[in-house]
Amino acid sequence: MTDDRPRVDITKAEDEVTRSQLLRRAAAGAIVLVYGGFGAKTAVAGAPNFRGKELKGTLKILQWSHFVPAYDGWFDNQYTKRWGQANDTDIIVDHVNQADLPARVAAEAAAGKGHDLVALLAPAPQYEDRVIDHKEIVQEVRHKRGKMADVCYRSAYNPKTKKFHGFPDFYAPDPVDYRTDLWGQVGLKPDTWDHVLKAAPKLRQMGHPVGIGMSNEIDSNMAMMALMMCFGSFIQSSKARVTLNSKATREALTFGRDLFRKGMSNEIFAWTAASNNQGMLAGRLSLALNAISIPRSAESTNPDLAKTIGLLPIPKGPHGRLGLEHVMHTYMIWKFASNKKMAVKFLVELEIKYRGAFEASKFYNFPSFPASVQNIPVRLGRDPHPPAGKYKILQTISQKYTKNVGYPGYSNAAIGEIFDTFLIPQMFAEVAQGKRTPDDAARDYQRRIGTVFEKWRKRGKI
Amino acid sequence: MIERREKLFSYLVLGPFAIVLAFPFYWMLWTSFKSDIDLYNVNDVPFAFGKGSPTTRNYGFLFHHTQYLTWVKNTAFVGIVVVLITLALALPAGYALTRLAGRWGQNVGVGIFLTYLVPPTLLFLPMSWVIAHAGLQDRLLSLIIVFPSFTVPFSTWLLMGFFKTIPLELEDAALVDGASRLKTLLHVVFPISVPGILTVVIFSFSLVLNDFVYALAFITTSSAKTISTGVSTELIRGDVFYWQALMAATLIPSIPLALLYNAFLNRFIAGFTGGAFR
Question: Does CATH place domain A176-324+398-458 in 3.30.230.10?
Answer without folding.
Answer: no
